């Protein structure tokens, strides 16, 4: 009897130990993960089998990955090839969801869509990397059933302030897709630069994309994306299930456009002659009282719509001082004609007209939320970018059924430093540590009651005033984007700061492999 007990205890201990001894370091943490008895011995080449043609990209990616690992070079015969099976399973209801099972004899990935399968592949790659990282050729047996908490999981780059070549955008997308991000928001126009070719208005790029340094930096900061390049990039991102959302910032942040076309009189006064080369908010904004402005906007939206297939179209709306409209006779006349009493109502009128163009080209508006706009458009998605406006955002969302993307400057502005560590050009910004990002729960953004209903997801903008190249963009993004990946994907009960920290070392190894110069979170090293 005692011997049986002792054996049982030993079995129990060894099985627990085997789980403890070999961990998986998946980010974002899956929503259901259960370890099972045993191991899958992976000391042979892995073959990826798939019957569904629509998973071809995912199959290829997994095969390339398996072939590139050291163990793949072992001699193979038909009998010692390991099989990974990808299966289409329509019973998985969430379009981004997937199931993954590892038994001592098999590895199986299931999803209803290519996107779900892509996420299954990302998870399996991280499981294999976890084993290799622990010098093991065995994968722990487990079952994963996973799907995201939020459907919008985004990052934003700002090539308007500092141009980033298209190859850099591709590198950025490759890395983020591995952490199950599915949106890249591109801030393409601003006071300091216009970065997309618009065929009807060539000067937007011959003039608007050329600028000497910023804030005293004398390095030329020229550059723009041709339409062909951008279409190719959008396709590249789509293959990694990242939707590219363009932004045409209106009516503020428009100095580059105004300076490119003085003859169109896009601003109310003739004050701007040069693309802005310092940061801050400009008072020169597009003029609501000039009809040519709306023709210009319609033309630009038309061309942009043909490049970006996304239904979502960001039209800015942030930081537009209305002083110029106050002093402009045609603007005030327009206000009277439409029986509007305040300039804020005129602001809402401006966006109603812009929305007519969006509707024409089958797009839906996205905005930065500003407090003094009395009424946004129907079918809007609004970006919360300051926690201080959270209560108003909630009220507006409730009243008009808006969807909300949480990008609060207190948790998710990745241009802000991660620590007070002497990084240049960021002294006025708040510090957002890795832990602070991890602590963010979008569903409680508004108050103590869960408000998930209105929230479509999260996004971290990497504003570009001080982000001069990809090197710095990666440095600001990682590892914080790992934390935000869990904020967007993982349900609260599965999120745990200590577990997250324990997964970082392996992820850092992977990031370095990919050429991502993340910032080591030295504040955590005690
Ligand atoms: C505010 S937040 C901006 C950007 C700046 C950023 C710098 C928002 C919608 N607008 O124009 O780049 O702060 O952190």
From TrEMBL:
Sorted keywords for this record are: Glycosidase, Hydrolase, Signal
Q: Which N-terminal stretch is annotated as signal sequence?
A: 1-21
Query: What Enzyme Commission number does this protein have?
Result: 3.2.1.52
Q: For this protein, what reaction is catalysed?
A: Hydrolysis of terminal non-reducing N-acetyl-D-hexosamine residues in N-acetyl-beta-D-hexosaminides
Q: Per the UniProt entry, what is one GO biological process? A: carbohydrate metabolic process
Active site residues per record: 319
Annotated Gene Ontology MF terms? beta-N-acetylhexosaminidase activity
Its name, as the record gives it, is beta-N-acetylhexosaminidase
């Amino acid at each position: 009897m005692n011997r049986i007990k002792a054996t049982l205890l030993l079995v129990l201990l060894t099985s627990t130990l085997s789980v403890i001894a070999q961990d998986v370091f998946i980010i974002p943490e899956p929503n259901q993960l259960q370890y099972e008895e045993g191991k899958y011995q992976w000391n042979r080449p892995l073959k990826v089998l798939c019957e569904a043609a629509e998973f071809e990209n995912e199959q290829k990616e997994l095969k390339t990955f398996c072939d590139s690992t050291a163990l793949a070079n072992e001699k193979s015969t038909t009998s010692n090839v390991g099989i990974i099976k990808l299966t289409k399973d329509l019973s998985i209801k969430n379009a981004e969801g997937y199931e993954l099972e590892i038994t001592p004899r098999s590895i199986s990935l299931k999803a209803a869509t290519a996107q779900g399968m892509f996420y299954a592949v990302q998870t399996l790659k991280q499981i294999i990397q976890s084993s290799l990282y622990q010098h093991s050729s065995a994968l722990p047996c487990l079952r994963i059933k996973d799907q995201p908490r939020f459907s919008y999981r985004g990052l934003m780059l700002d090539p308007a302030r500092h141009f980033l070549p298209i190859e850099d955008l591709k590198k950025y997308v490759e890395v983020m897709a591995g952490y199950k991000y599915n949106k890249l928001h591109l801030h393409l126009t601003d006071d300091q630069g216009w970065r997309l070719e618009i065929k009807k208005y060539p000067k937007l790029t011959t003039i608007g994309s050329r600028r000497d340094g910023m804030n005293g930096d004398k390095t030329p900061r020229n550059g723009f994306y041709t339409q062909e390049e951008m279409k190719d990039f959008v396709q590249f991102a789509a293959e990694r299930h990242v939707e590219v959302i363009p932004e045409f910032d209106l009516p503020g942040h428009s100095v580059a456009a105004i300076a490119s076309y003085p003859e169109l009189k896009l601003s109310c006064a003739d004050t701007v002659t040069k693309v802005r080369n310092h940061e801050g908010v400009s008072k020169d904004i597009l003029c609501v009282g000039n009809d040519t402005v709306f023709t210009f906007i319609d033309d630009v939206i038309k061309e942009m719509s043909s490049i970006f297939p996304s239904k979502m179209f960001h039209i800015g709306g942030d930081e537009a001082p209305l002083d110029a409209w106050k002093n402009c006779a045609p603007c005030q006349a327009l206000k009277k004609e439409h029986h509007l009493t305040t300039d804020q109502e005129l602001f809402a009128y401006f966006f109603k007209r812009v929305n007519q163009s969006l509707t024409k080209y089958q797009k839906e508006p996205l905005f930065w939320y500003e407090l003094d706009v009395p009424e946004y458009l129907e079918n809007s998605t609004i970006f919360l970018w300051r926690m201080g406006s959270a209560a108003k955002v909630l009220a507006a969302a409730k009243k008009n059924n808006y969807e909300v993307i949480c990008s609060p400057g207190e948790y998710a502005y990745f241009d802000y430093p991660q620590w007070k560590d002497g990084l240049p050009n960021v002294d006025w910004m708040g510090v957002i540590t890795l832990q602070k990002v991890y602590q963010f729960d979008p569903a409680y953004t508004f108050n103590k009651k869960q408000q998930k209903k209105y929230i479509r997801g999260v996004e971290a903008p990497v504003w570009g005033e001080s982000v001069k190249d990809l090197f710095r963009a990666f440095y600001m993004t990682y590892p914080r984007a790992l934390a935000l990946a869990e904020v967007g994907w993982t349900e609260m009960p599965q999120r745990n700061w200590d577990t997250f920290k324990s997964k970082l070392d392996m992820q850092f190894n992977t990031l370095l492999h990919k050429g991502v110069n993340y910032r080591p979170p030295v504040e955590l090293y005690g």
